[in-house]
Amino acid sequence: MTSLWLTFWRSAIYEVRFLRHNRWDFTMLFWLPCATIFLVWWIFSRPFITDLPIAVIDESHSPVSQMLIHYLETSPDLTVRQQYNNQHDAYNAILAQQVYGVVIIPKDFATNINSATVAPVILKVNAQYGTHSGIVQRGVQSAVGTISAGIEIKRMVKQGVSPTQAGISYAPISINRVSLFNAGTNYQQFLASTVLPALLHILAMIIGATTIGREIRDHSLGIWYQCATTDIPPPDFEAKKHLPPHAKFKPTSRHFEDVYVSDFDQYGLSKLSVSQSDNATRNMVTNKNMSDETFNKIAINDQSKEASTIKATFLSLVMALNGKLIWGLLPYTLWGAVVLILAVDSHAASLASILVVYVLFLLLMMISLWLGAIFSLLAYSLRIGLSITGFISAPAYAFAGITFPLVAMSDNAQRWANILPLTPYLKVQVAQLQMLAPPALAMPYIYGFIIGVAGCMLVTVFLCQRAFTNPLKWGVR
User: N or C, which end of the chain has less CB nearby within 10 Å?
Assistant: First the structure.
């Protein structure tokens, strides 16, 4: 057990030394998620959508049309940006996104009202923006309905009907609409609190893919494992960070004689004395005229033989991988707490619900890290691993059922959504923090995520063992 914890510690030391000399990777852990959280929260700092601009074309120019315009202006959802004299100017304003709808009051509007006939009002709305369109339609319908009801009730009162009876006669069936959750349509609560976990999910998968993928790219996967399981010190990352990936841990004949006996293990080959090497390796030491190309072919062949003999035991590889990825998890425990504090600040929830969501968030981050590592190991390539990571994680929010109903998706889309780990997480977060569901309802999801973490870890260990037996595939970008 002591040896396993030493493996974890050495692997963590290896990774932290790399992060000290590679600022971009450190930025992915700290500054980028920090900036993302506060930028998104600042964008949604105005949580309610009000005063959407619309235009009005008043062809009636009557007291009734002026009253309607006044009702539109006083609506909390709308503001009358400008009145136009023709539809062409209003259409250009919509194209320029100066307004999101145009209300057209016909010329015979007042005449029709006074003669007790239908007096239509035309609304042309830019339905390309779904949220804007819905709010504009709701605001215009509310204003038109209010003035229409007032005109009708006033007419009935003039006919001798009591105001109470007139109101009942005008609307005999009424709707009592009760908003159970997010009654004020708070978009900070609706979008910001769910977008942030989705963005952190993407960043965590990128970190997982990069942490393992760069070792494959730099020919240093074996070096990392040897540094984690033996007393070999980590390489000098400061001296190597400006080198191209293919040259960071790859020896050349010009420095082979100096390095071979003293420190050859840091370049991807096992530390062997000259007396232990074969005839081809002896010739490399003595032949001063050997070209770099010839040397590298022999060196890579020797590296393949030595790397294929790496015996990575299951438990030691588990501890080494966890030590390497621990620096990706620890900062995100902090960012998860920040996100939950912001979400709870806008909508209070019980302590038990907060703890359940936080535990599930940590499990989501673990799965994200392991999945990123799996994709890089599957392809033996950091570039392909990042591509697969982006393909899966970037559109995950669209399939989570937040902005588009999950039940309204096609069967194949629903199957894909249910596979993605972000979907059940957001389902639990919304239920616990916004709908105040009992914490017990989230326990099956926690058990499922624990199984998912264990499964992803086992797959990563298997793929690492496979990678150790195929060192010739290392170095793919």
Answer: N
